[in-house]
Amino acid sequence: MIDGPLTESPVEVGFLLLPNFSMGGFVSAVEPLRLANWVSDRDLYRWRLFSRDGQPVTGSNGIAIQVDAAIADVETYPTVFVCGGLDVHRYDHEKVLAWLRRLARRGANLGALCTGSYALARAGLLDGYRCTIHWENLPAFSEQFPDLDVTNELFEIDRGRLTCAGGTAALDMMLHIIAQQFGREVEMAVSEELIYSNIRESTEIQRMAMPVRFGITHSKLLKVIAAMEENLEKPLSQREMADEVGLSTRQLERLFRKYLQRTPTRFYLELRLKRARQLLLQTSMSVLDVALACGFVSASHFSKCYRDQFGCTPRDQRRALV
What we know:
By secondary structure, the chain is α/β, with parallel strands linked by helices.
């Protein structure tokens, strides 16, 4: 956890921008710091931007951001957030990882926005710490780093490691930090400036509630969908799902057709294929391993189902990334 300031000097916060970083998460983290200075009428925070080579970095939205320094010019820094985004799972620049390890040895607080957790994990800097990442990347991240304590919460602050899901979760995390360091009054004033009235706790989950996501409120149907999402690697039979909620298989079929316009089997298959696509795009797992992780008993059956759903085979999907 970041300690409160011990002097009147501004709290120094650095942001390492990786290629294709998420602008939303970055802005959500920087703006609360700026506004904390504004509402307090003094410099509570000072921030600097870093890149691997000191050159501007282009975000995933195509906007390039100027930075203040190359990492080689920064020997130490109190707190640094790694700003990740698209394709960060393939970013493995050893100079960046070595720099992060050096900061850690010198006592820096290290954080990650959105998918920046990948860089910290590759550097071995999340071992023994709770951490989180954007929900869309969470399954692939957990597969790649199975020994890490990964949660699906909005943000995690565990001693000197601060990770968040990105997007507006960065805003919640920064407001929490501001409250710790300068008090709730400053936090509330910043929140009012942002017209952000519902500050979320770290323990709140990232994804929308299922009734909102699927546009349904039928309790038994929602319970079945939740069971499907929790059992993608070893799919449940339709009989098992029906028994779970006290319905016959025919009643379950009717519910799915009425509310989701597809059979339970089809809906389940689509969930598994969506997970498979995430793993193909976000990990280096083999096609066979992806198939097995998503409940397919053979690579050939997986390939056929994937092509029917997405118009290309899993191998073609992988080749398109190169």
